């Protein structure tokens, strides 16, 4: 097989959780562009339908759509059974879904550690960590029975370093009202590395490669004061464009990365180098 061919994933059944979101859409398009069979999983049904239509228009590929909450074992088992009946296989799982409040969404003051609600903690951990574990638990054994598969867990620069809360500061607000990146985001994105290493060693000898990709922040019209401060912390001097991660995603889910397991690929414009 040529090196170029190793990037192709013809007909491979590839699940993307959180597919309707900003980056889930990009991962899905990478899969479709390289010949894979996208399986879109999200709680946002409208977003799923829009994405499936776009993928059909651009790539001529029909996506599988599953309106599913990844914190529900029952709903995930349903998805698995549908996929096994229809395709007889699952080749790729991208654990992408997480609760990631965008700066532009004006993060609530209650995000501050002193007042952080346990309910929010439980919800965000249940999507970002429990959800990723359940998807692996339920879809992984289908890959194991085929002796081949890839799990890709999505982390962040904030899975490697602490959030610099000065980035979110607004001079008009008193200290106790300043917005902060919530503690849950750090915990979830750090925890993803543990899940990757666990799965890599647990199923590595059965043909399942699990890796992490740690992404830097994507520019989505965040407030100028935030962007300017963040850009100074990034060696390349800018936030990422949403499409810029597609090539790395396809590398990690295809045979191009066949000798890579339990690793973390950092693509953050140099944010974590300094
Ligand atoms: N956007 C960034 O700048 C950035 C940077 C680094 C890492 N990441 C990571 O990339 C991933 C995707 O981020 P994003 O920016 O696309 O987020 P997003 O909020 O745009 O998308 C997340 C998607 O997950 C879905 N979702 C939430 N709860 C769910 C559940 N219980 N079951 C199924 N689906 C659920 C949402 O409906 C949404 O479509 C996350 O893991 C995030 O931590 C994002």
| Shape label | globular
By DSSP (H or I, 4+ residues per run), the number of helices equals: 8
The helix content, as a percent range, equals: 40-55%
How many domain modules? 1
- Give, in order, the helices and strands: HEHEHEHEHEHEHHE
* CATH fold group: Rossmann fold
Count of DSSP E strands? 7
**Uncertain ranges:** none
Look at the structure and name the CATH superfamily: NAD(P)-binding Rossmann-like Domain
Largest sheet: 7 strands, parallel
Rg estimate, integer Å: 19 Å
**Mean pLDDT over all positions:** 96
Strand content bin: 5-15%
Task: Please identify, by name, the CATH architecture.
Answer: 3-Layer(aba) Sandwich
Report how far the terminal alpha carbons are from each other: 39 Å
Alpha-beta classification? alpha/beta
Q: Name the ligand types.
A: nicotinamide-adenine-dinucleotide
Taking strands numbered 1, 2, ... along the chain, how are they ordered across the largest sheet?
Answer: 3-2-1-4-5-6-7
- Top CATH class: Alpha Beta
Q: Which structural traits does this protein have?
A:
274 residues; binds nicotinamide-adenine-dinucleotide; alpha/beta; 7 strands; 7-stranded parallel beta sheet; Rossmann fold
């Amino acid at each position: 097989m040529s090196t170029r061919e190793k990037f192709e994933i013809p007909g491979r059944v590839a699940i993307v959780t959180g597919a309707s979101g900003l980056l889930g859409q990009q991962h899905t398009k990478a899969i479709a562009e390289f010949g894979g069979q996208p399986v879109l999983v999200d709680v946002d049904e409208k977003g799923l339908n829009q994405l499936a239509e776009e993928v059909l228009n651009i790539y001529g590929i029909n996506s599988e759509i599953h309106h599913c909450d990844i914190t529900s074992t029952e709903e995930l088992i349903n998805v698995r059974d549908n996929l096994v009946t229809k395709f007889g296989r699952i080749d790729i799982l991208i654990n992408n879904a997480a609760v990631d409040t965008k700066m532009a969404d004006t993060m609530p003051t209650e995000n501050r550690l002193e007042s952080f609600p346990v309910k929010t903690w439980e919800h965000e951990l249940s999507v970002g960590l429990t959800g990723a574990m359940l998807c692996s638990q339920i879809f992984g054994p289908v890959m194991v029975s085929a002796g081949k598969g890839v799990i890709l867990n999505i982390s962040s620069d904030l899975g490697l370093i602490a959030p610099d809360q000065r980035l979110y500061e607004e001079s008009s607000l008193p200290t106790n009202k300043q917005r902060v990146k919530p503690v849950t985001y750090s915990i979830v994105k750090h925890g993803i590395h543990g899940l990757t290493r666990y799965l890599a060693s647990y199923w590595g000898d059965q043909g399942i490669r699990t890796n992490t990709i740690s992404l830097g922040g994507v520019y989505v019209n965040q407030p100028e004061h935030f962007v300017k401060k963040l850009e100074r912390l990034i060696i390349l001097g800018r936030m990422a464009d949403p499409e810029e991660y597609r090539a790395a995603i396809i590398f990690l889910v295809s045979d191009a990365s066949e000798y890579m397991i339990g690793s973390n690929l950092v693509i953050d414009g140099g944010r974590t180098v300094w």
